[in-house]
Amino acid sequence: MVYPTPERLQFPLSSYVVTGRKFLDEAVFGGQSWGRHLGEDCIAEPGTPVCAIGDGDVVYAELHASWFRRRGNWGHVVILGHTHAADGQPFYSVYGHLGDFRVAVGNRVQGGDTLGTVGKGRTRSNGWWPEPHLHFAIYRGPWEHHVLPGYSRENDDRTKLEYWVDPSRFVQTYLSPMS
Predict the structure, then answer these.
(1) pLDDT tens across 114-139, in order?
(2) Residue 179: inside a domain
């Protein structure tokens, strides 16, 4: 699959500050390790627009919410497919815990287009997480046409750490020799 090639990238929130879990933080809930965090969390007001980081195709847009409040999940999640301008390889931008989404699989978006909004905390739409936030991640592994996890897991090929890159660094260095 050939996806659009962004000329440049931007952050998905107008004020992008990582105020929650950082890339590769160890995540422990209830005394149990969930693995390494595969993205960045930005706590934001519910309803804050979440925008595409660059031109891409919507390859995934679903509600992934547990019916049980004790068990967090994605809530609304959108995944875009892009082609890297420097190496011609695909990469995927992941936007989780949205209150809603305004795109559908197969839509082509431009950088800056609104994909959805940050979901209200402790709701099914944000996956029952206490704080309203955006989980933003960049995946460079093989796409299997199903949701990508937010934490590394043993025996799950999609969570191999070499497939995931630091989202802030990726956006900041896109098209530089280090990206």
Answers:
(1) 999 999 999 988 988 999 999 999 99
(2) no
